[in-house]
Amino acid sequence: MRMEQYFDRPDSCYFVPDPEWAASYSRGNWEKEVKHILRIADEVCENTFLFDLDWDMERTCEPVTFREDVDWCCIPDEDPEFVWQFNRHRFFICLGQAWQLTGDEKYVRNFLRLIHDWMDRIPMEGIMQMGPWRMLETGLRGETWTKAIRYFRNSSLLTEEFIDKFAGYLRLHAKRLEEKGGDERLQSNWCILENSGLFEIAMALPQDEDTRRWASLALRRIRDSVWVQVYEDGSQWEQSPMYHNEVFHCLCCVVYLARANGIRLDPGLEETVHRMALADVIWRKPDGCQFIQGDSDEVDLRDKITMGAWLFRDPVLKYAGFDRMDFEGAWDFGRKASQEYRSLPAEKPGFTSACLKDSGNYYLRESWEENANLLHFTCGAMSTGHCHGDKLHVDLVLNGEDVLVDGGRSTYKDILLRFELKGNMGHNTTIVDKKPFTTFTDSWDTRKLSLPVNRSFHTGKKAEFVQGGHLGYISEGIFVNRRIIWIKPDIYLINDQFYATGEHEYRQYFHFAPEGCVSEENGLLTFRGKKNAAFFQFLTEGVSLEEYSGIISRHYNQCEENVCVRASLKKEGFASMITVINGGDSLAEAVQAELLDTWSHTRFINLNETEVQAVKITAGRRRYVVILCHNELFHSSDAVIAGDCFGVGNVCVFDVSDVKEGERCYGGEVLHV
């Protein structure tokens, strides 16, 4: 194939339209990223491979070096994820960027050496079908190969013989994806990742009957898969931000290429991709990263949000993204796109707290500032093997810094660590009688499920509320529910309710960020991070605290120790555990929190803790009373009296900061009726 036949359309029809400009832009705007790419490219030239790019799905911590021939089927430490990450060939793009940044032909020579070696030694049939030619990697190479070649297109080292061979192998990829990527895969992220690769191959090759058929087939599969996979709230159904964003990235690539080549997409498809970008905004932490949820790593979301902002010309996305086109976006989309992004206005979101009701994820957010407080609560359905047993889990960020964290994933191998991190006790949730409410048969399959129920969310002026329960213990006659009251901006009350008969042991788990230290004195638990402080008060009589060493994995193949605390309570019948948390910067102090007696207004009797409880919270000059009803108790024209507060809601918050002692306060802010 002649060179001009392969590159038969204007550069604007594909990725990497302005590589020379992108090299200059990157040196001026993304110096850290440039150094990272050059380090990777130099190591690859020496047959050394370390996968530590932000969006590498399975990162590695130890480099692997091949002294002689590259072993494309290598499985270090018995983890097949290495061979799959390896055969996605993301490092080919790094070699291309390094050549554009330096002009050093060694990067072109090593690209040709490695890709020739792979094509010559890795036939489609006969070599480890779940290895280099696994369907997912076949699809992902559709992106990495077709992008990489664009970086090298002006090199004198590229021959027409190579281009002919390269194009032939792209056709082999496309035929495999056409034949094996059927409808039975529509519910999996694989379907979109594979078929976006098929579409990219179809767009990269000279246009003919085959490429037109592949493009049409890929878009049909992607459209159908999107309808299955993406909730109305914008979340990809696998309950893992890492894989949500892999799907989002691939869909953005499809939208871009379709527009660049004059292909009309279903408007509903583009609208869905836009919603996925807005979901990223909702779950973005103050530091710009996604939460570690399910099988996710802690990765900065702003490059993905930036891509969405430019594609959809959305000022809200621009506000949550970078102020200029990100490193990869500059290479992928070029000068014109970067200029358009720079001129796009930024608009602060018109909301702070939000719920993704379909996926069951809730976010109580103070503001969009870097030092904001943010609580994430999850009570959604299990979906795929990437889900964890995290119902009722809470993440907490104070003063922009993590306090309570998810344990992450670390590995996909069937080993104890996988189950410790994936199971209920690896999350900030509750269990009963030391029994998990979710169990797993192996790394991917779930044995015992638990239906999420009783989910509600309310935003008020003084306070906000979220709750959710599950039926994980219903066969034993136990219903579990968690209620969270946020008194703005810095006080959180967690009320765990256990409706049961007989005696049981109830446990709450708290996993703390590894950067901080935890201490306990007289039932007050204190966490001090690099720039924040948090205080935990356990108000339920009989609760015992136990500190132990846990594990957190912020990236695949990486672990570190953190402090965990287990709060335990043995109780006959109904039990309520109340935890008050407050904090802020390093100068913050613990609030005063105490339980109050509660009375029935019309029956003139003291109400017991199975019916209602009330908490008084004092924070300097601020004073609040929170009423928490556990059962129906409003007989006739009844009300609950706690202190000087008179309320009829199921959950009420009274701001009594300016109320004189002995003066009755009526109504409060009703968060749940």
Helical content band: 25-40%
The structure class reads: alpha+beta
How would you describe the shape? elongated
As residue ranges, the low-confidence spans are: none
Strand order of the largest sheet: 11-12-13-14-21-18-17-16
Q: What separation lies between the terminal Cα atoms?
A: 72 Å
Examine the coordinates and then state which fold CATH places here, giving the name of the CATH topology of the largest domain.
Answer: Glycosyltransferase
Number of helices: 16
Can you summarize the main beta sheet?
Answer: 8 strands, antiparallel
- Average pLDDT score: 96
Q: Roughly what fraction of the amino acids lie in strands?
A: 25-35%
- What is the count of structural domains? 3
Folded structure, characterized:
The protein has 673 residues and is of the alpha+beta class. The protein has three domains: 3-343, Glycosyltransferase (Alpha/alpha barrel); 373-590, Beta-galactosidase, Chain A, domain 5, CATH 2.70.98; 591-673, no CATH class. The protein contains 16 helices and 31 strands. The strands form seven sheets. An eight-stranded antiparallel sheet has the order 11-12-13-14-21-18-17-16, with no helix packed on it. The chain has a five-stranded antiparallel sheet with strand order 3-4-5-6-7, covered by helices on one side. Strands 22-25-26-29-31 form a five-stranded antiparallel sheet, with no helix packed on it. β12 (463-470) and β13 (479-487) form a beta hairpin. The protein starts with a helix and ends with a strand.
Topology summary:
Layout lengths: L2 H4 L12 H11 L1 H15 L2 E2 L14 E2 L15 H6 L3 H13 L3 H16 L13 H17 L8 H21 L8 H16 L4 H21 L11 H20 L6 H17 L18 H11 L2 H6 L6 H17 L10 E3 L4 E5 L8 E5 L14 E6 L2 E4 L11 H7 L7 E3 L6 E2 L5 E3 L3 E8 L3 E8 L8 E9 L3 E9 L3 E9 L5 E5 L2 E5 L3 E7 L5 E9 L7 E13 L2 E11 L6 E5 L1 E3 L5 E2 L4 E8 L2 E8 L10 E3 L2 E3 L3 E5 L9 E2 L2 E4 L1
Parallel strand pairs: 28-30
Antiparallel strand pairs: 1-2, 3-4, 4-5, 5-6, 6-7, 8-15, 9-10, 11-12, 12-13, 13-14, 14-21, 15-20, 16-17, 17-18, 18-21, 19-20, 22-25, 23-24, 23-27, 25-26, 26-29, 27-28, 29-31
Protein name: Heparin-sulfate lyase
GO cellular component, one term: periplasmic space
Subcellular location: Periplasm
